[in-house]
Design goal:
Number of helices: 15
Shape: globular
Helix content: 25-40%
CATH architecture of the domain at 73-304: 3-Layer(aba) Sandwich
Order of helices and strands: HHEHHHEHEHEEHEHEHEEHHHEEHEEEH
Strand order of the largest sheet: 2-9-8-7-6-3-4-5
Bound molecules: 4'-deoxy-4'-aminopyridoxal-5'-phosphate
Distance between the termini: 70 Å
Structural class: alpha/beta
Length: 479
């Protein structure tokens, strides 16, 4: 068969790059790829156990329900479901959103809601509305890896505030705001994922929630609360969202159907005060005119059945078992210097390894063993931070896969530990990171986690002067 005359070249050559480089907008120079998106391409191979994606388990959604609802849409509302819709979204979709938010004690005004193409677009539109190049955005350290490319593409100056097991350290946030104040600067927004954070799995305590809302009100500061996981709680007591505590004056809310129903339908939302919403709507018009009308119909049909909450509860139950399995496997297969969080909900565990391990390098080795995770660096804007941490997803794989995946990662970690000790043996390793005074064989592949593993420590990687064995900073009275 003859080749088509104008085949696109698979790779741009250096001549091509030169030709286009002069045309690129300045912002493309600071644009970053989302680590997860890159990884999704690699981990699409069926033999790879991916603990990298942020995938909910959609296999549990009843196929018969899906088929029945799509059939009803085809029979009863095909014309509307195949047509453009209002930029703000259908009123019926907003009713469903208000119901979801009501389940966490929030009562938004219908007019303050816009239906977006996933929560991701909501974050993008909020930044498009508020951020000029050089503006300051404050977020958690680590932060949602998918938010980093958004902040970068709007050329924000991003300041990250450390998290511990109670979420963002509000005392540190306060100090950052004070410093900025002295410099005559004011952040445009504070971005937070307060419940079962992606990537760290930690949850902002009630006291800190109150303090954050107080700070927002007293400083007239906008807080963006991104809450995809709040309803996926499988332990502990529910906490009020920031939006509920604030009443919607200074908290802009971002929600999504991705984790409680399906990410494939690409439906999320933002809730914002009217003047901000007006601009967000304009931004969305320019971006994609409207959110998929077909999937908005699907959500309406699905919610009309009245079983959405039971389905969310079943997901939480499933994820609880998978979290337990992952924690048990970490205890068994990770070295004693490793620490990790033990979330009471959501989909992620954040594990931190000895400082001499670079999880970016480790990933290349892990992929050779057909297992993947997200390297910690993707949760930081500043280069070098999070180098020895990783995000592990427990919602998207079955328990057997989780066990095997963690075993494989544990093996590559053990190899790195051995290599490190072999290289530093006899070189006076004191003062260097790792485990001086311990021989490689002291770090078995199968180890029980020591009591200090798990929650109860700062998530910030230790500095080089902080001793040899990965230390756990004591929790201070941080409020
Ligand atoms: N925010 C957070 C914290 C997330 O974890 C995700 C998805 N992983 C999103 C936003 C975006 O999700 P979606 O666009 O599918 O709603």
């Amino acid at each position: 068969m003859e080749e088509p005359p104008h085949r696109r070249r698979a790779h741009a050559g250096s001549r091509d790059l030169q030709r286009y480089a002069g045309l690129f907008a300045e912002r493309t120079g600071v644009m970053r790829s989302s680590a997860m998106r890159d990884l999704m391409a690699i981990t699409a191979r069926p033999e790879v156990i991916s603990l990298a994606g942020g995938l909910p388990d959609t296999s549990t959604f009843p196929a018969a329900t899906f088929a029945a609802q799509m059939t009803r849409i085809a029979q009863e509302s095909a014309a509307e479901a195949l047509q453009y819709g209002p930029t703000e979204g259908f009123a019926a979709t907003v009713d469903c959103i208000v119901e979801v938010m009501g389940a966490e004690g929030m009562l938004p005004d219908h007019d303050d809601v816009i239906v977006t193409t996933g929560g991701q677009q909501a974050i993008d539109l909020i930044c498009k509305t508020l951020i000029d190049p050089g503006d300051v955005v404050v977020c958690e350290a680590p932060t949602y890896p998918g938010a980093v490319p958004v902040f970068c593409s709007y050329q924000a100056e991003t300041i990250q505030v450390d998290c511990d097991e109670d979420g963002m350290r509000i005392d540190e946030l306060d100090a950052v705001l004070e410093r900025l104040d002295r410099e005559g600067r004011r952040p445009k927004l504070v971005y937070s994922v307060p419940s079962f954070q992606n990537p760290a799995g930690v949850t902002l305590s009630l006291e800190r929630r109150r303090r954050l809302v107080e700070l927002a009100r007293s400083r007239e500061l906008l807080v963006v609360e991104d809450n995809p996981y709040g309803l996926l709680r499988f332990g502990g007591e529910p906490l009020p969202p920031l939006y509920q505590l604030d009443g919607g004056d200074f908290v802009i809310y971002v929600g999504t159907f991705s984790k409680i129903l399906s990410p494939g339908i690409r439906l999320g939302w933002a809730v914002a005060p009217p003047p901000v919403m007006e601009k967000i709507v304009l931004g969305k018009q320019a971006s994609d005119l409207c959110t998929s009308t077909l999937t908005q119909h699907f959500v309406r049909e699905y919610f009309a059945e009245g079983r959405w909450q039971a389905y969310v509860d079943s997901l939480a139950e499933l994820y609880r078992g998978r979290r337990d399995t992952m924690v048990e496997a970490l205890r068994r297969h990770f070295p004693p210097q490793a620490t990790w969080t033990e979330p009471e909900g959501g989909m992620f565990i954040w594990a931190t390894l000895p400082e001499f391990i670079d999880t970016g390098d480790l990933l290349a080795k892990a992929l050779r063993e057909d297992v993947a995770f997200v390297p910690g660096q993707s949760a930081y804007v500043e280069d070098g931070r999070g180098r020895n941490s990783m995000r592990l997803n427990f919602s998207g794989s079955g328990e057997e896969e989780i066990r095997e995946g963690i075993r494989r990662i544990g093996n590559v970690v053990a190899e790195q530990v051995e290599l490190y000790h072999a290289l530093t043996a006899g070189k006076g390793a004191e003062g260097s990171p790792g485990t001086p005074g311990r021989e490689a064989e002291d770090v078995p592949v199968d180890v029980k986690a020591k009591p200090s593993s798990g929650p109860g420590h700062d998530l910030t990687p230790p500095g080089p002067d902080e001793g040899a064995v990965l230390p756990f900073r004591k929790k201070e009275n941080t409020g």
